[in-house]
Amino acid sequence: MKRFLTCVAVPAFLCSQAAAVEIAPDAVKIDEMKVSQSLTGATGNAEEGAKVLANRGLGNCLACHVVTPLAKEQFHGNVAPALDGVADRWSEAELRAIVVDAKRVFSEETVMPAFYSLDVGINVRKDLAGKTILTAQQVEDVVAYLTTLKGSN
Amino acid sequence: MKRLSVLLLVSVASISGLAVMAYADPVDDTLTIDDREMIIRAKAPKGHPFDEVLSGWLFRESETRATEADSFANPGMLAVERGEELWNTVDGSMGKSCSSCHNDASATMKDVGAHFPKWDAKARKPVNIEMKINDCRTERMGAEPYKFDAEEQVALTTYIKHQSLGTPVQIDLSEGEMQSWWEKGKELYYTRTGQLDFSCASCHEKSMGKFIRADHLSQGQVNGFPTYRFNTAGMVSLHNRFRGCIRDTRAEMPKAFSDELMALEVYVTWRGTGLSVETPAVRQ
């Protein structure tokens, strides 16, 4: 279940291959808390990632996590740990795995939604069936941003 | 002291313009409405995940709390007044109003709302106040049942529940098959729904007391429904709220008064055993 990602509008240097392959949600392998390969075959854009992370209709990560460098965004939740310095605690591959499906990294008990998985709750809204919360590109962008969160920033 | 430190944190945060929320305990405060002290903390019934059940009032901001404490300021009291008017209004082919049979609600409906949902032997399922009203309308008044969330339904339910203001919530699980509906409701409470994959417990049990964005997560108690909400500037019925929460998990919503939501109402009502009925409560 691999799809070809067209590289339209993506700067050429981000595409290591002429047509990078995107990994479909049900084909993502999580080994030892890691997803080592980029879902898009390319490195994400950290600046875009910060937007996806803050956007209430996309990542909405601030609903539960504090991110001090994004203090200009109002109302960060505290249901989950702050993401400050998160790149000191987790590698890029681990961060990617957590964003993809935290339940497969931590435990079934975790409250964190799986952002790139179809193994979600029951009775999914019809128009969202078969869709992930974030696209592969958005996951990579978020991961790229998270890897910048080091030390005290 | 605890309260002071929370206030201090809040004011420091607002002075510095910092939007990051701090953890805050439920406030240490008492709620008195119409000179009657409300039970807003109660020892949890046996088998409950918490030791203490807490009214959602304790999790709201001071202005919201003050509005509920003052019946003249509480906009929900307009629904109570409207409900009283409906109580005394003749409707349907039999020429009757609620009061034709039930007389003065302050006497006949006193404490009644604190004990719903109740087993209905004829329907062979638990019914709530809204369903009971519709039953009266169709069976005894010759009137059309109210549609879900019709303004009249919400107002009349609010009026009837308000006759139990202060009375501790206590439902009878020994009647009929209430226990199995409770079990079904419990299962639903812990079932994760939607693309976001949250159950009721994700927010109201595991994350209780924390903040999702600016929203201070309470235990999700239902003792104040129908409730006046500032964010929609109107009354919100319990099944409307259930559906709203489920919608927010990005799931299809069950129908109001469906077996699923009735089971959930039984279970969630039980989770608030011992709290005073606060209808109409005021929330953000």
Structural write-up:
The complex is a heterodimer of chains A (153) and B (284). Helices cover 22% and strands 4% of the residues of chain A. Chain A is globular. Chain A has a single domain (2-146), classed as Cytochrome Bc1 Complex, Chain D, domain 2 (Orthogonal Bundle). Chain A is built from four helices and two strands, in the order ββαααα. Chain A starts with a strand and ends in a 7-residue tail after the last helix. A two-stranded antiparallel sheet of chain A has the order 1-2. In chain B, helix 3 packs across helix 7 (151-162) and helix 8 (178-189) crosses helix 11. The two termini of chain B are 25 Å apart. Chain B folds into two domains: 24-74 and 167-283, Cytochrome c-like domain (Cytochrome Bc1 Complex, Chain D, domain 2), CATH 1.10.760.10; 76-162, Cytochrome c-like domain (Cytochrome Bc1 Complex, Chain D, domain 2, Orthogonal Bundle), CATH 1.10.760.10. The longest helix of chain B has 15 residues, at 2-16. The relative contact order of chain B is 0.18. In chain B, the strands form five sheets. In chain B, strands 10-9-11 form a three-stranded mixed sheet. In chain B, strands 1-2 form a two-stranded antiparallel sheet. The interface between A and B is medium-sized, with 27 and 30 residues.
